[in-house]
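Suppose you are handed a protein chain with no further information: no name, no annotation, nothing but its sequence. What can you learn? This example shows the usual starting point.
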Amino acid sequence: MKYKIGKIPRIRASHNKETWEKVEVELAKIGSATFDQLVFVCKDHKHSAGGLGFVNYCIDNGWLVSKEGISKSNLDEKQTTKKSNQIYNGGSDSGIYIAFLLTESYMPVTRDPRYVDTCAKVNNQNVKIGKTVNLKRRKQDYWKDFDAHNVEFIPIALLDDIDRAEDAIKKRLDQYRLVSPKGGKMDWLTGIDPMSVVRASYDVLESGAFKYQAVKNKFI
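A reasonable first move is to predict its three-dimensional structure. Written in structure tokens, the prediction is:
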């Protein structure tokens, strides 16, 4: 999907104005750009949400719209159209999900006694992007690790090619991935909100021509 300018915003914040001017210059040259291209143009945006957050902000406010005329803020309509065009024949409960805590208190990412003292800890400022062959069972796992009242588990897409899909989504969100105490990159993210993670994930699935079915959730 490519985006073009939908309307000229009235911007007061200097950091937003500076980044929007870069978007205008780029689109004046090429007419329209993919989500990834726009994020790259905005990579130096002076805000904790970074370029990804600014691009989502522009789409939310209608400053950027689909070249085909469908605003990404109108995801309900887009997903309805997409479902009728997709070929998804999988009958399994495999797919992509996000999870996030509802508490400010930091909690270990596992209750396994072998790792609980040395593993990373997360709170409501973090978001997990993950894959599973069984969404219902995976939800139960999160309830065991964090307690049901502390965590929200949200399936966002059903598909069979979960390994390739997760890799593509994590590549898009690489700059937000937490680093574990052992130095490896995790599936838990920081500096990005759940809605932005969901939208980036759908954009990756669509641009990568994955055969999937969007799952209705609170963010679309």
